[in-house]
Design brief:
single chain; membrane; Acyl-CoA Binding Protein; 349 residues; Ubiquitin-like (UB roll); cytoskeletal protein binding; 22% strand; FERM/acyl-CoA-bd_prot_sf; alpha+beta; FERM domain-containing protein 3; 3 domains; 6-stranded mixed β-sheet; 4-stranded antiparallel β-sheet; PH-domain like; transmembrane helix; 7 helices
Length: 349
């Protein structure tokens, strides 16, 4: 579980445990308890019926937050075999869970926004900030030393505000668990940036600046799936707004953009990506540890491809409507101008 920074959350965003029940006329003895861990490590406790679908939990969490931009988020759980899953909204929760109640799940970012500038709500940006903070701590968001120092300074600025020598002792950064391995050299650089570069930034501004930096990194939004390629080499597969990615160690060796991905499929423990690379059709095969892991990998791929394809299609749809609107306006202005009576020009005699 994520070890959060040792700091007091801002009051306007402090969450408390709440309880709710799914509506049903059945006996309360048939209810099952669920605990959903949120991105700030607070919890929501609830009771559900056997037939309650996943959408119920998603809706209640979004209503609790008053979250409007819901599509980026999902609920994740781990089965007894340590296999991760995303809760499916249209299926019964009890049929998806392979363990006995009480159930424990996590509310997480499922689809990372391609461009933070297009996020409309401050709450959505804050939740994405919390997710990226977790990704940094767990070593999922890889970056250079300078980028790490800047990201760390943004977190400190968001949590503590401006540097104050009276309130912040010499080793105040050491109280923060930001990175899995946090050297003194990195901490000194974080202090330098916090003191000199971020002064005056409010928490939302510091959080937004973290998003702007994070979304430029290759591993932004990558939920790594460990596999082996055809040569037996350990690789990590992931899906981003750009497309399907493959990493060996810290190096990205493949990026197949979504328009070039023709098909994703799986057979047993083997996952296939059929796409176009350098104008040639290619098929990449990867081997997972279990059939369940392979199916989960495939489902993540299909869902990410569908999500980001819809986002691109909507962008071009509204872009076309904008062009059409501007064209009609210009045509109307031209028609009005042409219908106006011609005025006589003054001549100097």
């Amino acid at each position: 579980m994520f070890a959060s920074c040792h700091c007091v959350p801002r009051g306007r965003r402090t969450m408390k445990m709440i309880h709710f029940r799914s509506s049903s006329i059945k006996s309360l003895s048939q209810e099952m308890k669920c605990t959903i861990r949120l991105l700030d490590d607070s919890e929501i406790s609830c009771h559900i019926q056997r037939e309650t679908k996943g959408q119920f939990l998603i809706d209640h969490i979004c209503n609790y937050y008053s979250l409007l931009e819901k599509d980026y988020f999902g609920i994740r759980y781990v089965d007894p075999e340590k296999q991760r899953h995303w809760l499916e909204p249209n299926k019964s929760i009890s049929k998806q869970m392979k363990s006995h109640p009480p159930y424990t799940m996590c509310f997480r970012v499922k689809f990372y926004p391609h461009e933070p500038l297009k996020i409309k709500e401050e709450l959505t940006r804050y939740l994405l900030y919390l997710q990226i903070k977790r990704d940094i701590f767990h070593g999922r968001l890889l970056c250079s030393f300078s980028d790490a120092a800047y990201l760390g300074a943004c977190i400190v600025q968001a949590e503590l505000g401006d540097y104050d020598p009276d309130e912040h002792p010499e080793n105040y950064i050491s109280e923060f668990e930001i990175f899995p391995k946090q050297s003194q050299k990195l901490e000194r650089k974080i202090v330098e940036i916090h003191k000199n570069e971020l002064r005056g930034q409010t928490p939302p501004v510091a959080e937004f600046n973290l998003l702007l930096k994070a979304h430029t990194l290759e591993t932004y939004g990558v939920d790594p799936h460990p596999c082996k390629d055809s040569t037996g080499t350990t690789t990590f597969l992931g899906f981003t707004a750009a497309g399907f990615v493959v990493f060996q160690g810290n190096k990205r060796i493949h990026l197949i953009k979504w328009p070039d991905v023709c098909k994703l499929k799986f057979e047993g423990k083997t996952f296939y990506v059929i796409g176009t690379q350098k104008e040639k059709k290619a098929m990449l095969a990867f081997h997972t540890s279990t059939p369940a892991a392979c199916k989960h990998l495939w489902k993540c791929g299909v869902e990410n491809q569908a999500f980001y394809k819809i986002a691109v299609d909507l962008f071009f749809f509204f872009f076309f409507l904008t062009l059409l609107f501007l064209f009609n306006v210009s045509q109307n202005l031209f028609s009005v101008g042409a219908s106006l009576p011609q005025t006589q020009t003054l001549r100097r005699v």
